[in-house]
Amino acid sequence: MKTSTTRQLLTSVSLMSLICVTGFANAKSADAWTSAGVLGSVSSIANTNLTLFEVGSTAPIQTVVNPTTIFGGICHHCGQFQPFKLVDGSKVCSMCGCGEPNLECIGWEHFKSYDAANVLSSLPEGTGIRVVFNTDGNSASGIKDLYITRKQALVPVSGITSISSTDLLNLLKPIGVNSAKLVNGGSLLQLNLKNDWTAKKAVQLNTLLAKDGGKVLPLVPSVTK
Ligand SMILES: [Zn+2]
Ligand SMILES: [Zn+2]
To answer: How far is the CA of 82 from the centre of ligand 1 (A)?
Structure first.
């Protein structure tokens, strides 16, 4: 017990030091990127064509990424927000000296090839993405910015419209949910989380909703190449 408390303390101290060194310079941009555009999640991918769930859109939307789309997310290696053009996704990160391809920094794993489809389909189902279109509100204009925000999730659900928001939040406490909101007429569940969304949490979410007669709808991103 004592050892683990000491370890926690040391971890907190070193984390605080890290925040002192890197955090403040990025604090402002961190706020901006996690609230940019509209919250979505990936339904399916075919090359550069994406079908997305999106807050405010009744049906999944069709859109496209292109070489100049700015991808971004938290770098797995240094914890900073890392933006880059998709065309530079396979180039070595110039931000933190990790020596890895940009798309690995924000995708958090090695990929056979560094393209949008491989990275986006590797995310845990329902992982939040912030999407800004080239023309505001027009998905057909293509994606200008796509930021992976792992402390947000957007999951298609059914059967939980009768659960009060207080009961819903209590129900989802075990997976570290800070806030839960049913959107799009009750067909999507928008979550803000204490920690990163994971594939395990997606499974747990289904189990928790089933207690009150709800369920997670199939949302495995399917990739066609
Ligand atoms: Zn980095
Ligand atoms: Zn990196």
So the answer is: 7
More confident residue, 85 or 59: 85
Query: Is the model's pLDDT at 22 over the cut of 80?
Result: no
Ligand nearest to the CA of 95: 1
Phi, then psi, of 133 in degrees rounded to 5: -90, 155
Compute the distance from residue 96 Cα to the ligand 1 centre, in Å.
4
Q: Are 83 and 72 in contact (CB under 8 A)?
A: yes
pLDDT, tens digit (0-9, with 9 covering 90-100), for 73-114: 999 999 999 999 999 999 999 999 999 999 999 999 999 999
Task: Catalogue the long-range contacts made by 118-121 (C-beta closer than 8 Å, 24 or more residues apart).
Answer: 118/223, 119/71, 119/89, 120/42, 120/45, 120/50, 120/221, 121/42, 121/45, 121/221, 121/222, 121/223
- Indicate if the pLDDT at residue 161 is higher than 80: yes
Tokens 């189990």 found at = 207
Q: How far is the centre of ligand 1, averaged over its atoms, from the C-alpha of 216 (Å)? A: 34
